[in-house]
Amino acid sequence: MVYLDTDKQTCADLSITESVYDEQPLCSLFLKTETKQGKSLMLEWIMYPLSDWETICKRQKAIDWEFLPDLPLNEEELDFIEYYLGYRDQIRRNNILFTCAGLIDRLVRYDPNRYVICRGVKLVILMLHRLEEWVTGARSDMPKLLKEAACTVRSILHGSELEEVLEQTSDEKARLSIYAIDKYDYLFRSTRLLSVKELLSIIYLLDVCRTAHRVAKEKKLNCTPKMVQAMEFSVEGVVHPFVKNAQRNNWDMFQGNISLFTGSNMAGKSTTLKALTLAVWLAHCGLPVFAESMTCPVYEGIYTSINLPDSLRDGRSHFMAEVLRIKEILIKVGSGKKCLVVLDEMFRGTNAKDAFEASVAVNELLRDFPHCHFLISTHILEYAKAFEHDCSCCFYYMEAEIKEDNFVCPHRLLKGISEARVGYWIVKKLLNMHELEIEKAR
Asked: Which residue of 177, 231, 268, 423 is most buried, as measured by CB atoms within 10 A?
């Protein structure tokens, strides 16, 4: 399996697993599995996106399928099986003498360990029968991922001593002898331990697919991204997953490999960049995305520079942190990997003239990496204007204007370069209001 390359800074910028910047973590959308181990598997999917077209598509089709089977056991039963398999006491080959000795011993004193073994054995047997029922009645039109899982179940159940267990326990009402429990216990916890654990992993896979399918229905995520090997990137009706009543926007890389986003402060540039990047991230996990439709390249890496901290310990300013981060990203894309790079407000830590010149210099460098896509937001209109006729760049802006002395921001993403300059108005408006509040307080 080939994984997408990324780093800690990108995961922090996008709040993948932790709420680093008071944002709800992306993983919280899908961590609603029926089992604890299913939750761990779902988290693994989200933390480690894929760069493998075939595996991504297999996940997508499995999650999309309308006939996903119910889990063979509930969470408590599966947890008990996990506990039982990890229980290291009294693992020994079944022997009639040991069984008789144990029976006599239990007549004299209570053995709490025996409860764990008896219930664990019975639950594993129940799991085997339920999985056998699933693969026997499986539909012929199952997606490939589920077909592979069913094939694994068949090979485990019918290629080992577990097949005998199924035959010998076909009568669910029949009582298991102490000797049979000892025999199956040794089989489950020793001889075929790895096989039983593999069967459990398939149940957790079903749990993840069922959960993603359920979340997609609840959130009305009807979009399964089309993953392509070419550099085709477009999305319709994309929204940030945690913005309520969000404006849906369309975007595509209609020319070149650099997309510049302009617009005034508070217009929504950063949120839009994150919405696009999170859609790409989820697409590479094989999960549904928050959009109406999407065509996405199979990238080999995702890197962002959105919320960079300065460092008092290292004596590093915010500007220096930005420069070093961009250098780090350039080294990554210079390796030849197909990458998505997101740069939000480059060089905000320095003066306007330096920021303009530095941004232009970086843009010149990025044109030399046609195998990568770069999404860059800026409030320096002169920087965008400098590349207005450059075929390596396309342009979008977030709509915003002052109407009747009010800041109007519909959060619509439009093609072109913004001409809006509302920063001074906002400062003046807020400062005047502050002065009025001071006067009232007096």
From this structure: 268
Evaluate the CA torsion angle 365, 367, 368, 373 in order and state its sign: positive
Residue 189 has pLDDT above 60, yes or no: yes
CA distance linking residue 369 with residue 230, whole number of Å: 15
Integer Cα distance of 114 and 137 in angstroms: 35
The total number of structural domains in the chain stands at 2
CB distance 330 to 349 below 8 Å:
no
388: containing domain? 226-441
In sequence order, which residues have a C-beta less than 8 Å from that of residue 101 and are 6 or more positions away?
Answer: none
Distances (CA, A) of 309 to 12, 21, 305, 315, 355: 11, 11, 10, 12, 18
My answer on whether 209 and 232 are in the same domain is: no
Residues 375 and 265 in one domain: yes
198, 294: one domain: no
Q: CA angle, corner 296, sides to 290 and 299, nearest 5?
A: 115
Is pLDDT at 107 greater than 50 in this prediction? no
CA pair distance 303, 326, nearest whole angstrom: 10
303 and 423 fall within a common domain: yes
pLDDT in tens, 254-267: 889 999 999 877 77
Q: Are 338 and 371 in contact (CB under 8 A)?
A: yes
Task: Using DSSP bridges, classify how beta strands 393-398 and 413-415 pair: parallel, antiparallel or unpaired.
Answer: antiparallel
**What does DSSP assign to residue 187?**
I
Residue 116 maps to which CATH number?
Answer: 1.10.1420
Query: 400 with 422: CB under 8 angstroms?
Result: yes
- Smallest CA-to-CA distance from 213 within 67, 43, 53, 45 is with 67
Residue 384 sits in a domain whose CATH number is 3.40.50.300
pTM higher than the cut 0.85: yes
- Cβ atoms within 10 Å of 96's Cβ, excluding its own: 9
Mean pLDDT of 24-51: 96
Token pair recorded at residue 410:
């519909």
